[in-house]
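your task:
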Amino acid sequence: MALKDITLKVKKGQRVGIIGANGAGKTTLLKLLCGNIVPTSGDVSVSGEIQALMGMGTGFHPEYTGRENAEASLQYNGLSSENYQTALEGVIEFSELGVFLDQPFKTYSLGMQARLMFATATAIKPEILIVDEVLGAGDAYFVAKSKIRVDELVNSGCTMLLVSHSMAQILELCTDVLWMEKGTVRMFGNAFDVVKAYEEFVYGSTSVLQGVSLPMKNDDVKISDGAESDGTLEPVKEDELSDEAESSAKFESVEEDELCDEAEQTGKAHSLYDAESGELFKSSAELKPRIELELSNVGASLGDSALNAGPAGHLSGTDRLAEKVAPHVGEEGSPHIDDLLFQEPYFVPHDRKMNFPDIEIPYGFNFINRSGISRWEASKKGLKICSFTMMTENGFTNKLLTLRPVKFIFEIKSEIEEDFSLRYSLNISNHLGQTVAAIRSPHDQFSIKSNETRLIEVAFNPMQLGPGDYIAGVAVMSYSTLEVINSATRYDLLSRSFDFTIENPGSMSLLQSQFFHSAEWLFRKR
């Protein structure tokens, strides 16, 4: 069976990404929706006209020019002469093929084919747009343009289903994601939550999600993989989620310090979460939104890391910076720092003393992302991250200000007595899951006994990221040079697990930037 017991409902205007390994059944599902094949069991109901991009070059004649193919496609869709001319002009403008538009389609690169096909398919404002990996051939510029076009279509009521192996593309274009595995539904819900779980499964522990009754967004869709349910929404406390029986990776909500003490713990399971009420649920009720696509029990057969001081006597990062820079300021031929003209708003990284409050650092994990802690499988046992928090000069908080000091603090606990040589990493991602900062620590060497802990602090003096919502992750790995850091031994990694928000101070409310860079200005005659 290519597909087995799939029940899926998609509302009008949703943007659904479909992910999974090759052979998971993604393309078969799209073919069912397009009517290219019929299910061997169950029903498929589609309300709306479909435009489908199911493969590179499909429906386009290789000997015809790009213009001739676009014209034939638009004529096939029965546009009036007035709408036809407008649509054709839109295709020419969006595809940006220039003189190549009048060259044979077979001479196009995959990226050029993707531009023309997407431009043609979206020029007529379809009710349902289905795209199967075609956009994967496009560059970043084309994906950005496609997102604008998709937003316009969705705002006009269009529904989109997109199959892609690019998680960045899925996060960029989709609001919800369906994860398929071996012809069944593995997970369905918020795009970021599902992509995060999928990446954890692929790159972390292969056993983390086995046997889990997987979550869904109860306010948007219903999706079931054949599991029995009483169809009721029952609010529960988070720690009750660990009572799910007969699951090798059941829902769990553990005390924060238990994440250190359980050597076999590979990550916090994903909870059913209602964004409006903030409640967690054990199961999902069948909701009745406006349905545009619906499958019922369908089956188909095709027949075939930190700025921490190193060993005793080593200089801290700040000391080393001062040692290198200070001797040159004011030297003959070098500008005095008072003579330099800096950017506005004015700041010089690391030039002022930070005044964090001298208060006890809480033990445990603070500011956890709503989808939980994503702990990837360690390549070597020995150390575990057991605490995480954030601090400003006003205390512990995840509400940060641009160009103000910020400190990220995490703690590791040793499972053995050992001499360690480590590097730490702090990764910051935006709301789309794209990495915006990767902070690597210098070398940290130390000896530690079993069950002892070590604090690591990463100070931003000041925080230069612009306003927005962000997600932080931390990693502990064996020390290696940056050139081979990807092959370093991983002791622990909490991926995209902690939320924080950055805002501009009131005096900077009109200044919008993703990053505030320091710079020196010079004004002079030529």
In short: The chain has nine helices and 26 strands. Residues 56-125 form one domain. Confidence is low (pLDDT under 50) at residues 206-290, 302-330.
